[in-house]
């Protein structure tokens, strides 16, 4: 699964990027029923764990495409509109964990799982910070509103689902990959 | 779960536009207002009226976009507007630096006591809140109707014709095609889990527990889809995907109305940048009548 260059962009990346995006859109739509306590406009997105998993398993391009297109798709399905900075922020959230895709050898090994989770959290921090800070220019909000009202709840909610669901996804993928033989 | 597009074909001016035109116009207005740092109501108001006109011309029924509109209005008016009114932050420094008389004071105190603070709402802050609300709505009104009025089947070709590489555009196209299949898989999985006593609507326990209990839904769908993806990769490789520039079934053609709207968008972008940086016009400005409201 990681036998090719980290930055290779071929058929596999196109397909998995599209698949990750579609999954991100479907799961986001399905789980919008879980509002995040203390932040009325932010919902739990367990789909974030799937996005980070796609980055970790298939590389940075897949993570970027899945996050960027998936957010456009999720917004389109929900009727939100088109907000390029949030889509790009989601893309970064998938791309950064993808940087370690080449070094993940065993999806069941604890060190590899911890590395994936840590890079996932870094991706969440960078992606959500980018989107929140861009909101200063796009929406005219101030820095504290961007950090407290947008970044913090999004970061905490996404980190929580990543810590809980990413290891389960990696463990399940190890079994599927072993059965598939590639 | 039913994944349905918000899009419905309608014979309207907005839907007759080339989708590229709409994205270009959106980008021009957003960058015109944000990059140039426009905070002058004399520029914001005409732009707001223009985007409101386009929004109304989309003729999307109220029931379709009710939820989104209410959310955006609550966010903009309550969160951003009140924040601007009380703090004056989030905009140009002129709001806070310019000496301005107090319009009224907002008491924030413990109920039944005199313990608390009285926040002065100045003329500058009050006007700034109004400008900021209209400024945000100007941009949101262009973005909100897009999913309701743009055919999902042309997202891919639209991005390609805007200069995005073939593979990225095709990934977008493919994602839209995957979506109904995955939504169906998700429903099937949910039904299968329900037959085993699993109910998404009644997930109990704490936060951690609720998230963990989503795994029986997310894992099977995700893993099954990775298996399917391998077959798609093989099929595409066998057809030599990516070895030459691809063609698209749908073609896009600019009409005179598209050139007119793109020209207007470019004019707005250039106008905002030139007026702000060449003439210094477009900064925060308070009209005289606001001062007559001071008690």
For this structure, the CATH topology of chain A is Arp2/3 complex 21 kDa subunit ARPC3
Helix percent of chain A reads over 70%
Number of strands of chain A: 2
Helices and strands of chain A, in N-to-C order? HEEHHHHH
Strand order of the largest sheet of chain A: 1-2
Give the strand order, joined by hyphens, for the main sheet of chain B.
1-2
Compute the number of helices of chain A: 6
Question: Roughly what fraction of the amino acids of chain B lie in strands?
Answer: 5-15%
Helix content of chain B: 55-70%
Structural class of chain B: mainly alpha
Characterization of this structure:
- The complex is a heterodimer of chains A (182) and B (295).
- Chain A is mainly alpha-helical and 182 residues long.
- Chain A has a single domain (11-179), classed as Arp2/3 complex 21 kDa subunit ARPC3, CATH 1.10.1760.
- Chain A contains 6 helices and 2 strands.
- Chain A has a two-stranded antiparallel ribbon.
- In chain A, a hairpin with a 2-residue loop joins strand 1 (35-36) and strand 2.
- In chain A, helix 1 runs antiparallel to helix 2, helix 2 crosses helix 4 (84-98) and helix 4 (84-98) runs antiparallel to helix 5.
- The longest helix of chain A has 38 residues, at 143-180.
- The radius of gyration of chain A is 16 Å and the shape is globular.
- Residues 37-41 of chain A have low confidence and may be disordered.
- By secondary structure, chain B is mainly alpha-helical.
- Chain B is built from 13 helices and 2 strands; from the N terminus they run H-H-H-H-H-E-E-H-H-H-H-H-H-H-H.
- Chain B has helices at 13-16, 19-35, 41-57, 62-87, 94-97, 123-143, 146-149, 155-161, 166-195, 207-212, 215-238, 256-277, 288-291, and strands spanning 102-109, 116-122.
- Chain B has a two-stranded antiparallel sheet.
- In chain B, strand 1 (102-109) and strand 2 form a beta hairpin.
- In chain B, helix 2 packs parallel to helix 12 (256-277).
- Chain B starts with 12 loop residues before the first helix and ends with a helix.
- Chains A and B meet through helix 1, helix 2, helix 3, helix 5 and helix 6 of A and helix 2, helix 4, helix 6, helix 7 and helix 9 of B.
């Amino acid at each position: 699964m990681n036998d090719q260059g980290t930055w290779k962009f071929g058929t596999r990346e196109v397909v998995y990027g599209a698949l990750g995006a579609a999954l991100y859109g479907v799961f986001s739509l399905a789980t919008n029923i879980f509002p995040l306590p203390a932040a009325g406009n932010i919902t739990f997105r367990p789909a974030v764990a799937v996005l980070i998993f796609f980055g970790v398993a298939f590389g940075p391009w897949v993570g970027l495409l899945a996050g960027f297109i998936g957010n456009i798709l999720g917004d389109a399905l929900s009727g939100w509109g088109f907000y390029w900075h949030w889509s790009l922020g989601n893309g970064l959230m998938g791309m950064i964990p993808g940087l370690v895709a080449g070094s993940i050898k065993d999806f069941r090994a604890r060190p590899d799982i911890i590395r994936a989770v840590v890079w996932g959290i870094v991706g969440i921090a960078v992606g959500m910070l980018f989107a929140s800070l861009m909101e200063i220019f796009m929406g005219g909000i101030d820095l504290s509103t961007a950090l407290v009202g947008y970044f913090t709840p999004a970061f905490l909610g996404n980190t929580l689902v990543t810590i809980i669901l990413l290891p389960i996804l990696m463990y399940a993928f190890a079994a599927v990959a072993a059965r598939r033989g590639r | 779960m039913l994944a349905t597009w918000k899009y419905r074909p309608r014979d309207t001016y907005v839907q007759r536009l080339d989708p590229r035109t709409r994205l270009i116009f959106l980008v021009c207005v957003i960058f015109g207002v944000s990059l140039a740092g426009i905070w002058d109501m004399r520029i914001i108001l005409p732009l707001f009226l223009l985007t409101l006109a386009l929004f109304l011309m989309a003729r999307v029924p109220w029931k379709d976009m009710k939820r989104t509109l209410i959310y955006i209005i609550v966010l903009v008016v309550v969160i951003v507007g009140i924040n601007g009114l009380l703090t004056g932050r989030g905009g140009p420094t002129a709001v806070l630096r310019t000496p301005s008389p107090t319009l009224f004071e907002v008491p924030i105190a413990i109920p039944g006591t005199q313990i608390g603070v009285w926040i002065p709402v100045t003329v500058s802050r009050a006007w700034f809140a109004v400008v900021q609300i209209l400024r945000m709505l100007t941009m949101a009104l262009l973005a909100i109707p897009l999913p309701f009025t743009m055919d999902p089947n042309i997202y891919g070709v639209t991005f390609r014709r805007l200069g995005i590489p073939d593979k990225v555009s095709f990934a977008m196209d493919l994602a839209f095609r995957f979506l109904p299949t995955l939504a169906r898989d998700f429903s099937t999985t949910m039904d299968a889990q329900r037959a085993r006593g699993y109910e998404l609507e009644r997930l109990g326990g704490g936060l951690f527990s609720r998230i963990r209990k989503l795994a029986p839904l997310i894992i099977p769908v995700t893993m099954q889809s990775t298996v399917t993806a391998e077959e798609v990769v093989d099929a595409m490789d066998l057809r030599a995907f990516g070895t030459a520039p691809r063609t698209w079934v749908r073609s896009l053609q600019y009409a005179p109305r598209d050139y007119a709207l793109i020209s207007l968008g470019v004019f707005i972008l250039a106008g905002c940048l030139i007026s702000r940086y060449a003439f210094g016009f477009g900064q925060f400005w308070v009209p005289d009548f606001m001062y007559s409201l001071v008690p």
